[in-house]
Amino acid sequence: MHGLLKENIQLNRKVLSELSMHEPYSFKSLVDASRQSFPGNKKVVILPRKEGLSMLV
Question: pTM for this structure?
Answer without folding.
Answer: 0.63
